[in-house]
Amino acid sequence: MLVLTRKLNESIMIGDNIEITVLAVDGEQIKLGINAPKQVEIHRKEIYLAIQQENSDALKSESTILTSLSEYFKKKNQ
């Protein structure tokens, strides 16, 4: 992990087109401004992990439904 120190209104660059700026510091909270192309998705980590879990659950559910349908049609054709 790269650790950088930045002061208020200072930025870091990620690649050529993502800029992260420290907008405010209030106690233990920091407000960051992120300037990135619209096609780059930006989420808080807990939201990102929830999305990944929902996608995984949806795939499992879809697989279960397909298996159930397959079994139904096998029984129906017997």
TrEMBL record:
What does it do? A translational regulator that binds mRNA to regulate translation initiation and/or mRNA stability. Usually binds in the 5'-UTR at or near the Shine-Dalgarno sequence preventing ribosome-binding, thus repressing translation. Its main target seems to be the major flagellin gene, while its function is anatagonized by FliW.
List the GO cellular component terms: cytosol
Provide a Gene Ontology MF annotation, just one: mRNA 5'-UTR binding
Going by the UniProt record, its keywords in alphabetical order are: Bacterial flagellum biogenesis, Cytoplasm, Repressor, RNA-binding, Translation regulation
**Description of how the protein assembles with itself and partners:** Homodimer; the beta-strands of each monomer intercalate to form a hydrophobic core, while the alpha-helices form wings that extend away from the core.
Record organism:
Peribacillus psychrosaccharolyticus
Which Gene Ontology BP terms does the record give? bacterial-type flagellum organization; mRNA catabolic process; negative regulation of translational initiation; regulation of bacterial-type flagellum assembly; regulation of carbohydrate metabolic process
**Would you tell me the protein name for this molecule?**
Translational regulator CsrA
Using the UniProt record, give the first listed, main subcellular location.
Answer: cytoplasm
